[in-house]
């Protein structure tokens, strides 16, 4: 019997990569493409244009296509939910039920809403291939001794922030934290932090201990490195096995071009 997977697709290329992985695993993929999702036509059996403020048709589409499981993928911002113009009744109800728009609350509402339709929300990691890398250095240059000190400091702070559902990324130089990520996202936090700290800062991305990988998988890619390079950052460190490296070869190549040390680590150094 054919398995039918609904992909709820935010911005970026990750939804297309996950659709490709799902098809390889034998799923029939129905993609609900929100603004910014690209490349889905080549990998999904059906692509349905969707928008954040109009979630009723998405739920109706899931039922019409007899979707049994759903995966969230791509970039969604909480600010999209806060600023949606004329949200339909479904979205208004979900936002009201969530209360504070933090990941844990939104996840609970999404799981409950889908469950009422007999649909299971799946862990995204099953559709990421080999992108969740083990510990290692992916650039030609290793972090310096001072950069490792700042990386360890960054992980201490980033884990506290992630556990509190504030953000996952911090920028550190000489032990001083110049930026923490909030609703603006990773790249903007990097731009702000490197502007304040000046060249030589490190960027650290960690994950909450109780992170729900059904809701999102923290990700870095060439865009992250571009932002770090523009601000003169010396190193980018991500939590091994829990942060996805999007197009690892291209990301490492961009780090090499900028002289940035790119590492996946547990933060122990």
List keywords for this structure.
269 residues, 5-stranded parallel β-sheet, 6-stranded mixed β-sheet, alpha/beta, globular, 9 helices
Task: Write structural notes for this entry.
By secondary structure, the chain is of the alpha/beta class. It is built from nine helices and 13 strands. The protein has helices spanning 14-24, 56-64, 78-83, 89-98, 103-115, 145-163, 186-197, 222-230, 248-258, and strands at residues 3-9, 27-33, 46-49, 69-73, 120-121, 136-137, 169-173, 176-180, 202-205, 219-220, 235-239, 244-245, 261-265. The protein has a six-stranded mixed beta sheet with strand order 6-13-11-9-7-8. The protein has a five-stranded parallel beta sheet with strand order 3-2-1-4-5, with helices on both faces. Strands 10-12 form a two-stranded parallel sheet. The chain starts with a strand and ends with a strand.
Shape: globular
Kindly report the oligomeric state of this protein.
single chain
What letter string, H or E per element, gives the SSE order? EHEEHEHHHEEHEEHEEHEEHE
What radius of gyration results from the CA coordinates? Answer: 19 Å
Number of strands: 13
